[in-house]
Amino acid sequence: MTATALYEQILRKQSFLCVGLDSDRRQLPACLSDDAEPLWAFNKAIVDATAAYAVAYKPNTAFYEVAGAAGWQQLEKTVRYIRRQHPDIFIIADAKRGDIGNTSQRYAEAFFDTLDVDAVTLSPYMGRDTIQPFLEYPGKWAVLLALTSNASSTDFETLTVDGGSTVYETVLQKSKEWGTVDNTMYVVGATQAALLAAIRKIVPQHFLLVPGVGAQGGSLEEVACYGMNDRCGLLVNISRDILFADSSGGFAAAAAAKAQEWQEKMALLMGNGESASRLSIQNP
Amino acid sequence: MTATALYEQILRKQSFLCVGLDSDRRQLPACLSDDAEPLWAFNKAIVDATAAYAVAYKPNTAFYEVAGAAGWQQLEKTVRYIRRQHPDIFIIADAKRGDIGNTSQRYAEAFFDTLDVDAVTLSPYMGRDTIQPFLEYPGKWAVLLALTSNASSTDFETLTVDGGSTVYETVLQKSKEWGTVDNTMYVVGATQAALLAAIRKIVPQHFLLVPGVGAQGGSLEEVACYGMNDRCGLLVNISRDILFADSSGGFAAAAAAKAQEWQEKMALLMGNGESASRLSIQNP
Which of A157, A171, B168, B261 fits B157 for a cystine, CB–CB 3.0-4.6 Å? Predict the structure, then answer.
């Protein structure tokens, strides 16, 4: 998917909502406890309930790997289902992978060919070698960790390196030369919203994947204020607040209501009149 | 497994060889091409052939994920087989995971409970949050990326941060306070052998997992010279040089011969008389 196609979907749905499929088996509704494939059953219901309000889904691999091969199979079923039912929706495997040359190629193949998602999150620690193979798939995306939403992001990400930039700023500066705005995004935590303005100076045109709104306490309004660019440029991820809005048999309806709430907030922040005029914007 | 138990196995086998199960399906011997589970068939033969010479196995998850759920299943079978046949051998999932709190706990559970390996490689980029859950499993290990063997390790790992240390030195300095020598190891590439002496000043007692000897060109002698401590302190990983020593039906015998060659070199570097006396060394 190109950045333009993603932006057009955002305008159409008036939403930049990414639903994080962090389908923690310990938090699933009790009504699914006897299901042979509870992660898949849960995800199917969540996707059916929220697809009208979301432009992206982001399953985090940890919640599938914890169930072993059976979990991986439920992840595969989920991705295939989204692809079939909602071919325009962007799918991000939140895997935070990162390995060297030969091995990194196999990860790219695992996520882009075998699993067939649109994007995968990657850790930049080991440098360009770990990212390059993902950039060689037309229409697919590498989503690099930049400044994350957790407390210990200050351990290494925000250290100052020679020249006065932080580690995460150096990640942005170097890696934006490796790919394009059509195959590279960055993870920036919503809990760091005040820093989004500075980040936008380094990567004005790139899409940012923003976790941390909702359960983690980040503000959607601040993220939009500091992070939005003239083609939206944001995918804001909400997981728990939607997935576990209700633990009864009515969990899917509750998830739909929550997703709609977020979508409506996003539509307001996008500004309707302005957004409609943007539909005519061409690829830069 | 404690560091002492690992060291005792090293002395017993006169080997600090870790066999990297980077079982790339494209490089498997042709005789396995009709096998329904070629990764598992290959791994079983490799383990049977090399277990006498190795103290550790290190499957890299990329080569299993590329085959989807079926690949993950073959990884599980491999780990179960090693556990059953060779309960003293140390198993490292080379997964380079790294995620925050809640999610990181699920990864720890995925690797230590579900898959049941002894250790997992982790990316330190996001800081302590990503490592802590792995340190809370008695007898299990977190293996942190420090200075890797790839060319682009200079992109971020070797940048100088405030105070004059590099990023990877800062990773060592901070993270050694999070765990102990019984639950934390570091990845240091053999292609960086000259830097091992400096690394040993920061982490004199920790085990180092050293890839890059063999196909990547690192020298075993230099690694031993600069990296060995008084309890060996090294696991040197060899993958392709052993796994793909021969592409015929005799691949397992060729792998055994190669593994034995490496073990014999390691025995010489350990020094027999000296090693025997080390058997009496107590846990520091």
Answer: B168
